[in-house]
Queue: 3 jobs
Job 1
Amino acid sequence: MMNYREIADRVLNRLKESKGDGRWDDHLSLATWEWPQGVAMYAMFKVYETTGDEKLLAEIKAWYDGHLEKGLPGRNINTTAPMLGLTLLYEATGEERYAPCISAWADWVMHGLPRTQEGGFQHLTSDCVNEEQLWDDTLFMTCLFLFRAGKALQRQDWQDEARYQFLLHIKYLHCTGNGR
């Protein structure tokens, strides 16, 4: 049975294998800032919290620093996913240089992200508008970030909006017939 660090190493090594060179699995490369990397960085951060492995924290920090230095992609639901990990990194390190990026992205979520008629976060992605659509992915990729950003930067309005989004998504994504 593998320990947490072995699992983290396998995930990071797999993501390092793809170089973002136009292959079908470009989105699985650490060279990219998209939802797979957001999920991976969140998981790696949780491993760090469990193990206290400073080497892993340094790898996470290096990934974020590299992307921030070269510039982040356009904003949408999928590219918001890595922001959750950045918020956790900010909370763990206290490095103020992360706060402006977190704040600007959360402000875009609040005021720039297209919304449905009831104010739900429309599932805008890198290649599709998904007009008037609520997807459960949005809860992880955007709402968790918005809530954590609100906690980290003491913005109650962001936390309240994240709660509203969860309730609205539940309203439409919950099947009353079978309770799922």
Job 2
Amino acid sequence: MTARIEHSPAAGAAAAGEARPVARTTEARIERLRAPFSLRCGALLIDYTLPVAVVALFTLFARRFDANTTWFGLGLLTLGYVLGVAFAVLNLFVLTVFTGRTVGKWVTDLRIERRDGAPLSYGRAVLRHLVGYALTLATLGVGFLLAAFNSEGRALHDLVAGTVVVRRRSVARTRRPR
């Protein structure tokens, strides 16, 4: 159900042209595979559930201290909103730029990359998450469904930013004895 995007050869001695020991019968390579739509949905669910959970937890604490009448309860409620927004910004922008993953993509073992395989830059992350998600939501979520029907698994926000969501796996291939 996944399409292969590209292969990259194994690093190390094989790439440098050095002779390998005879006892070694396998060589590893990394494949970039199209991220399955179900994993992308799971990652999205995790990414949006966590900030909401932070706000909900602080709302419960604020209710305990009666947020409508006490300054402490109102402060807890405000702190919950601030922490929820801060967590969303850290997750969607900072983590994405430095690791190519959000928390949801880390849990589901997915990665956001540029279409050519290069790491995601800050500008592309901002373009993807602010402009691309806004356009995707403006289409009432139909932009998300493009990932299910696109041959590369790219949603509307991926098309806008020139990105692709992939999963990586190491594949061992056996050498034939001579």
Job 3
Amino acid sequence: MSLSALPSAGKKNMKKLSSKGQRWLKCFHVFFACSWLGAALCLRGMVFSLEATNVMELYGINISMKFIDDFIIIPGAIGCLITGHIYSIYTNWGWFKHRWITVKWIIAIGAIIYGTFCIGPWLNSLPPIAKMEGLNALTNQTYIHNKTMLYYYGTFQTLGLIFALFISILKPWKKKTIEQ
């Protein structure tokens, strides 16, 4: 059975956003994407370049990173997910109509899942260790491991978000064709 033979489930009657509505949606989507990627780049800068010389600096760096994650990255990622869903449902872009959209979905959902279950816990563990152990945290094996994981995997995730940005602009792959 081909995909074209499947029932449309009312898809033809689905109301689409007006061009003005699509422009507003694009504004929100770009805002959330900028928040997510911009904050991820800030965290990369902090992980790569900031070194504490005293206890308060160490705790301040770690709690600042947690703040950026909790109040900029997470809302940005959720906003991108929600606006992406709206794009897929209420515009002609669809969910999997174009390969570049499919790749963006894979990147976004993968980044959110990995961020939630790996990167977030690694990041959230740093401030309590720094607060409890002071500069001795820099020799704590858990602290070292989690900061190293943030260094490598956070960078990989940020590069994935940059790739998603580029394919959003370049739209490199042609529309998928459905065999009948």
